[in-house]
């Protein structure tokens, strides 16, 4: 049996759905782009042009959701497995846009640069349990208005795994399509096997900014998969209750989905949520709190209700160091959404409330993702695994450690980590060689050494620079 988790009853899911429909119909959402208002108005939304407000009737929402595919596939390159978001499949990926790095060589905090992006992406490419890449670094040595393109360039050149960049404008969406097409042999190949999705986070409460509306429309037209996110902060720009924050986040994601589906009914969409709350003692986002994990469970259930692929934050924390607090925050916020079936969980590699990248933390997060995946695999019960005949062969007082049955199944049944230490304590041995930081450092160096650049990355770099600057 595969383990699962629900926070909301079926009736409670229906209540959140109904509340979101009411929010969109009665309160409405601001769309700062005239083109978006015109599209919505042409299809029956009630438009207040002075306020740039669209009140969206339930039938438009239900029609948009009905046109969503239950599975969106992002493709790997050079033998990397494809990512099929949907169902109960769970994938882990990096989270993005850290402006600082905790330098693993010096142990010092400093500004994050493009070279840090490259190194982080290469490590993510070499780690087995990083399934996709959201650009983890906002490089402070690149031109600010082009950061999204340089972030995407770093992912395309140094990782074979699917990526999820942000896009600053409609023109940048087109450039990203050009860049990705250059990597896969043309536009038709990219359309058939998309290697990236563009992430959006709608401004709470209920504002679809001009740039977000433009990029949603352009992605829908070009069939670029959309990672449709909403990130209200309970107690700040959203109600302080989890249920109220979920209803608002759901309404925002649905508003963006309606716009995309009115532009192109075939537009591929992943329902995503960053709903979280403020620690009202400090006004900081409580990323590592239990409520953050619970909100991801709710998001997974809402996506499953709509039969849409899902994603959102997880495996994330507030601690500024690779320490015990980081461990419990990261594991809790990974395991809860994974058990709920959230398909694409973003969080690997960042610390300090998403402000700082850490290559050492990425190695630890890869280990935690492997741990969670083993739990998700569950327990298989069949005649051979019940081992009645094996127990009879060994009899009372028997030993199983060297039997063919144990040799056959021990690797399948029992997880063994890469940096987890299970060795016997030896009072005469120095503890330093077995410290977690030492083991992580060795694993980090080994994985970076194992990274192999793609054969065409030098030629592609020139092409991408021409596209970015063009």
How does this model look, in words?
By secondary structure, this protein is α/β, with parallel strands linked by helices. The chain is built from 17 helices and 19 strands. The protein has helices spanning 10-27, 34-42, 58-66, 114-126, 147-158, 170-184, 187-192, 210-222, 242-263, 290-306, 324-340, 359-377, 383-386, 388-394, 404-413, 436-450, 457-469, and strands spanning 29-31, 46-48, 53-55, 72-74, 83-85, 91-94, 100-102, 109-111, 198-202, 207-208, 226-230, 233-234, 269-273, 276-279, 284-285, 310-313, 344-348, 350-351, 356-357. The strands form five sheets. Strands 6-17-16-13-11-9 form a six-stranded parallel beta sheet. The protein has a four-stranded mixed beta sheet with strand order 2-3-1-10. A hairpin with a 4-residue loop joins strand 14 and strand 15. Helix 3 (58-66) packs across helix 9 (242-263) and helix 8 (210-222) packs across helix 9 (242-263). The model has no long low-confidence stretch (mean pLDDT 95).
SS field, number of helical segments: 17
Number of strands: 19
Please estimate the helix content. 40-55%
Could you say which structural class the secondary elements and strand pairing correspond to? alpha/beta
Question: Taking all residues together, what is the mean pLDDT?
Answer: 95
How can the largest sheet be summarized? 6 strands, parallel
Q: How far is the first residue's CA from the last residue's CA?
A: 54 Å
Low-confidence stretches: none
Cα Rg: 23 Å
For the structure shown, list the relevant keywords.
6-stranded parallel β-sheet; alpha/beta; 470 residues
């Amino acid at each position: 049996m595969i383990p699962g988790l629900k926070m909301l009853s079926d009736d409670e899911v229906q209540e959140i759905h109904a509340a979101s429909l009411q929010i969109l119909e009665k309160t409405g959402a601001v769309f700062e782009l005239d083109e978006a208002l015109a599209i919505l108005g042409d299809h029956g939304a009630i438009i207040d042009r002075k306020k740039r407000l669209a009140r969206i009737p339930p039938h438009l929402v239900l029609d948009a959701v009905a046109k969503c595919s239950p599975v969106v596939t992002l493709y790997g390159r050079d033998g990397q497995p494809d990512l099929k978001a949907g169902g109960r499949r769970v994938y882990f990926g990096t989270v993005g846009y850290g402006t600082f790095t905790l330098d693993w060589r010096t142990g010092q905090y400093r500004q994050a640069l493009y070279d840090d992006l490259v190194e982080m992406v290469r490590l993510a490419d070499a780690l087995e349990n990083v399934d996709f890449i959201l650009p983890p670094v906002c490089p402070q040595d690149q031109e600010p208005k082009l950061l999204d393109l340089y972030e995407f360039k770093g992912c395309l050149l140094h990782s074979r795994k699917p990526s999820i960049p942000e896009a600053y404008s409609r023109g940048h969406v087109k450039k990203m399509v050009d860049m990705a097409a250059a990597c896969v042999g043309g536009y038709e190949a990219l359309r058939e096997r998309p290697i990236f999705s563009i992430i959006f986070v709608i401004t709470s409460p209920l504002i679809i900014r001009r740039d977000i509306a433009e990029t949603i429309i352009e992605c829908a037209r070009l069939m670029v998969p959309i990672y449709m996110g909403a990130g209200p902060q309970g107690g700040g720009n959203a109600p302080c209750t989890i249920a109220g924050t979920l209803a608002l986040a759901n309404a925002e994601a649905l508003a963006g989905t309606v716009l995309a589906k009115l532009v192109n009914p075939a537009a591929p969409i992943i329902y995503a949520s960053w709903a979280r709350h403020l620690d009202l003692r400090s006004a900081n986002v409580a990323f590592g709190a239990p409520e953050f994990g619970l909100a991801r469970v709710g998001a997974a259930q809402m996506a499953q209700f709509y039969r849409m692929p899902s994603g959102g934050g997880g495996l994330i924390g507030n601690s500024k160091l690779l320490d015990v607090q980081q461990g419990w925050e990261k594991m809790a916020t990974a395991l809860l959404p994974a058990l709920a079936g959230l398909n694409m969980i973003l969080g690997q590699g960042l610390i300090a409330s998403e402000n700082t990248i850490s290559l050492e933390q990425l190695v630890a997060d890869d280990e935690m993702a492997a741990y969670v995946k083993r739990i998700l695999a569950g327990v298989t019960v069949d005649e051979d695994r019940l081992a009645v005949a094996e127990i009879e062969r060994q009899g009372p007082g028997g030993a199983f450690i060297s039997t063919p049955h144990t040799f056959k199944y021990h690797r399948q049944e029992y997880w063994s980590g890469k940096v987890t230490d299970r060795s016997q304590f030896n009072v005469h041995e120095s503890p330093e060689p077995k410290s977690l930081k030492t083991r992580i450092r060795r694993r980090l160096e080994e994985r970076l050494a194992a990274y192999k650049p793609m054969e065409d990355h030098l030629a592609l770099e020139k092409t991408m620079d021409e596209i970015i600057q063009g």
